[in-house]
Amino acid sequence: VGQDDGENIFQELDEYVVTRELAKHFRDFFASYKKGLHGHTDRMGVWISGFFGSGKSHFLKILSYLLQNKEVNGKRAIDFFTDGNKLDDPMVIADIKLAGNISTDVILFNIDSKSEADAKSNKDAIIDVFLKVFNEMQGFCGSLPFLADLERKLSEDGQYDCFKAKFQEVSGRKWEEARDEFYFIQDEIVKTLAALGIMSEDAARNWCERAVDTYSLSIEKFANLVRKYCESKGENHHVVFLVDEIGQYIAGDARLMLNLQTVTEDLGIACSGKAWVIVTSQQDIDAVVTVKGNDFSKIQGRFDTRLSLSSANVDEVIRKRILAKTETAMDTLRLLYDQKEAVIKNLITFTDEVEKKLYMSRDEFASVYPFIPYQFNLLGHVLTAIRTHGASGKHLAEGERSMIALFKEAAMHYMNDSEGVIVPFNIFYHALDKFIDHTHRIVIKHAEENSKLKPFDVEVLKVLFMIKYVKEIKANVENLTTLMVSKIDEDRIALRKQVEESLTQLIKQTLVQKNGEIYIFLTNEEQDINRAIQNEAVELGEIINETAAIIFQELIKEPKYRYN
Prior knowledge:
This protein is of the alpha/beta class and 564 residues long. It has helices spanning 2-15, 20-33, 56-67, 77-83, 90-100, 111-114, 125-137, 145-156, 160-171, 175-178, 186-195, 201-214, 219-233, 246-250, 254-271, 293-302, 311-321, 327-347, 362-368, 374-389, 403-413, 428-432, 438-449, 455-466, 477-483, 492-508, 524-535, 540-555; strands spanning 45-50, 71-72, 75-76, 104-110, 238-244, 275-281, 305-309, 512-515, 518-521. It folds into 3 domains: 2-116 and 222-309, 3-Layer(aba) Sandwich (Rossmann fold); 139-214, no CATH class; 312-523, no CATH class. Strand 2 (71-72) and strand 3 form a beta hairpin. Helix 2 (20-33) crosses helix 5, helix 11 crosses helix 12 and helix 13 runs parallel beside helix 15. The termini are far apart.
């Protein structure tokens, strides 16, 4: 496992693309971080935002490698950025080297996966997770903080190794393997503590029985624990908490946001820049939760460094990582664009007010082909919407569901096709299918098994699902036709007719509902409601009575008129 992990990290560092935007973020981050290396600062919070799939989690991981200057296969993390010319700004390189040469403990974690299932109902949920990962980093018990306190005390007194050895002698089990079963091993703990003279047997028994009830944690106490730890490791030792997906975890809860602010504030006061908190979120800091007045100003003050990853960043990475072409291929595609420019512009059009990026030049066509520029932004919106409304648990957070991975999979699907093919938007569904929750996926599955539907009908349904919760595009016939374009020489009129026929069939099967000119994908529950409405038998007399009521009670207020 260690070898595989090392190979994965080597590949991550080696293949990481530093775009113009990322180069600026590296500069801004390390300029801020430097303030705590040879001085004092309480502005040690960093907020990294970007839509889902934008690469913010990957950026966070790369920062973790650089901060500890991790060595992989004999090569330091910073060397990947200087040897391959990923960064060419000497000031940024100097700042990264300075940070990498400082003794640092890096704690990288996804807060949702480290949190207990029901923890979010507790206003101190965030400090509990911070303490857990801090204890785990030192080799102490993460799940039972009172037990970690005992381990910490034994470690400070130089007795921890003796305790572990004696416990194994008494119980026949390794301490690290047994400690989570604290309630079942209290006799062995008592014997071990007494045998080493750390406590009397009565005192040890009393501690075991009362430890859970008497343990308490304040944020100030946690901050002082971190400060004492840094001091014990040397004059300028640093601890960096890198927290992924904090925005999703907070999810609009002002109590959790204030808990995060207090943790960051107290770490700043206690550690003077030796402890940093770096978080990622889909939203900017001011969009995560509504916090009133002075409290919000405090939160913004603590997270003084704010870095935002835009769709342009993803676009640039995909162009360099996935779509790089030989000069001969670029010339061929430029020539193709020159020949078909008018056809392409008439083929790919949208009716929305929100701008959709199209090919602006022959060079852009050649660089993003076989994709269309609008797909970068739109897929980002789709990923965010699916994450919010239709993702299966936490699985969509995994790295392989990034924008880069989705474009790579789509490109590989068409790698053996000749020039002229265009990747239609529905192809992106295939890479997302197993990560979509049952409520939505079962609709597509049943549609695939429906003998009254053609394969093209199902592909249209997949597109309707992907854009169901995306407000940036209207699901009308014109836009759906554009999304389904699969080749430059596509007959748009024929394709539009095919899309209309599919929509008619999908409506008949109650998989789609039409509202004005907009077509809406229906979940199973929504289909049931629509079927119930359709099957409701309404008598002619009821229609007449309801019509009369509307006319004579709502439209015509006075049923009698005097004729003079």
